[in-house]
Amino acid sequence: MEAPTRIIIEAVGAGATIAEAAQAAGKPVASVRRWLTEGRKGGRHAKFAAAVDEARAAQRVELPEGPMTHAEVERVLTDAIRRGHSMPAVKMWLALHSQDGAPTDDDPFAEFDPPAVR
């Protein structure tokens, strides 16, 4: 595989999003997403798509059956927040840590809530 595709696969394996991996490789994210779509359909980028999917699968956290422990919830939320994907995860984390002195009276993210949630 070419250097940019190796960079993308390695970045995804390290926990980067497709957009972050594309940027690290100097490729437009739209192109990388197109390669993945074509590859998943058995097209010319099939090996690349399989390698990205394998790298992404290796990042998944396998949790045991049953209710999650506080530590498991904390880990999942923290991972989502650090990847920069989830404003709901930030809000949940703040709610869990309200006893830690995190400000919860004035919700700085309320403007992002749908009207029914406010």
Q: What's the layout of helices and strands?
A:
Blueprint: H1 3-13, H2 18-25, H3 29-40, H4 46-59, H5 70-82, H6 87-96
Helix pairs in contact: 1-2, 1-4, 3-4, 5-6
Key structural traits:
single chain, 118 residues, mainly alpha, 2 domains, elongated
Alpha plus pi helix count: 6
How many domains, in number, for the residues?
Answer: 2
**Helical content class:** 55-70%
Instruction: Please provide the ordered H/E string of secondary-structure elements.
Output: HHHHHH
DSSP strand (E) fraction?
A: under 5%
Calculate Rg over CA atoms. Answer: 18 Å
Low-confidence stretches: none
How many E-type strands?
Answer: 0
* Sheet with the most strands, sense and barrel status: none
Describe the global form: elongated
Span between N and C termini? 49 Å
Structural class: mainly alpha
Q: What's the pLDDT, averaged over the residues?
A: 82
Q: In words, what does this structure look like?
A:
The structure is a single chain. This protein is mostly helical and 118 residues long. The protein folds into 2 domains: 57 residues, no CATH class; 43 residues, no CATH class. The chain has 6 helices and no strands. Helix 1 packs antiparallel against helix 2 and helix 5 runs antiparallel to helix 6. It is elongated and about 50 Å long. 13% of the residues are buried. The mean pLDDT is 82.
